[in-house]
Amino acid sequence: MLASGYTRMSKRRVFVLMLLVLALPLIVFISMSVGVLPVSPLGLILASLSPNHEVNPVAWAVIWYLRLPRALMAVMAGAVLAIAGVVLQGSLRNPLVSPFTLGVSSGASFGAALAIVLGVGIVGMGAYLIMANAFVFALLATFITLGIARLRGMTAESVILAGIAVMYMFSAGVTLLQYVAREWELTELVYWLMGDLSKASWHRLRYTVLAVIVCIPLFKFAWDLNVLMMGDDAAKSLGTDPSMTRVACACLSALAVSIVVCMTGPIGFIGLMAPHLARLVVGSDHRFLMPTSALIGALLLSTADLVARTIMMPLELPVGVVTAFFGVPLFVHLLLRTRREIWR
Amino acid sequence: MAVKIVVRDITVSYGSIRALDGVSVELESGKITSIVGPNGAGKTTLLKCINGIVRPSAGVVFLDGMDIRKIKQIKLARRMGHVPQLPPLHLPLTVFETVALGRRPYVSWVLSKKDIRTVEEAMKAVGIEHLSDRYFDELSGGERQKVLIAMALAQEPEVLLLDEPTSNLDIRHQLEILNLIRRLAREKNLTVVMAIHDLNLASRFSDIMIMLKDGRIFAIGSPREVLTPENIREVYGVEVTILTNPHLLVVPIGVVP
Ligand SMILES: Nc1ncnc2c1ncn2[C@@H]1O[C@H](COP(=O)(O)OP(=O)(O)O)[C@@H](O)[C@H]1O
Ligand SMILES: [Mg+2]
Question: ipTM score here?
Answer without folding.
Answer: 0.91
